[in-house]
Amino acid sequence: MTxxxxxxxxxxxxxxxxxxxxxxLLCAGxxxxxxxxxxxxxxxxxxxSAVALALGPARVPAGTFLRAIRWPLAFIAVGAVTAVVSVDxxxxxxxxxxxxxxxxxxxxxxxxxxAVLLLATTTPMSDLLPQLRRLRVPAAVVExxxxxxxLLFVLLDSxxxxxEAQTAxxxxxxxxxxxxxxxxxxxxxxxxxxDRARRMQAGLAGRGMETGLRVLSDAQPSSRPFLAxxxxxxxxxxxITLVVR
Length: 245
Known about the structure:
The protein has helices spanning 5-12, 20-36, 39-55, 62-84, 98-120, 125-134, 139-168, 175-206, 224-244; strands at 85-88, 91-94. With 245 residues, it is mostly helical. The protein has 2 domains: 5-123 and 219-244, no CATH class; 133-206, no CATH class. It has a two-stranded antiparallel ribbon. The model has no long low-confidence stretch (mean pLDDT 83). The chain crosses the membrane at residues 24-53, 73-93, 105-125, 226-244.
């Protein structure tokens, strides 16, 4: 366990060499359509377009995309259930227009999630962070995102090392041992990650690191046909939705 599945898919994507600003424009337009347009048929068109682009031109493996979206879908399902339940003096009950509210919430959330995952599975963070700086996103926000991204790999490395040691000692051989090993794994990973993060901070401070860590990014020229796609696809989805409605 040395990396993130979504990050690996982004590095292997057929859109890896495209300008991150072009992909950001396309995905931002799809997210805006998911938020603004009526869920029917806007959300369906947005989700279908995002999945088709990811599995088609971007060549993201279908299994990878499904693995990335399954937990957001579970969270969306829980949110939809809580949105249709009302609590009053008589106890639990169904909220007015429960089915419609749940459908609208789930439709918008699934469409927006698919659009965000299209960006995540085609654009590595090392390309996206410099683009955010060029878009004048506050430096503090970009730096927090960068540090969080780096610490994810510290966490994954610690998790893999501790779990491998537990497996070698038959720590997951029975349900009782697995329950005990899971608790010890969580405690050890948090402790090791905290210690490595603290040492990283001390090392950067010792080198006089007072500003963000800047790195050189690859030159990725913008593509006019791709920009045209990023502009026309959201407009086309909006037009079709308004005509159908």
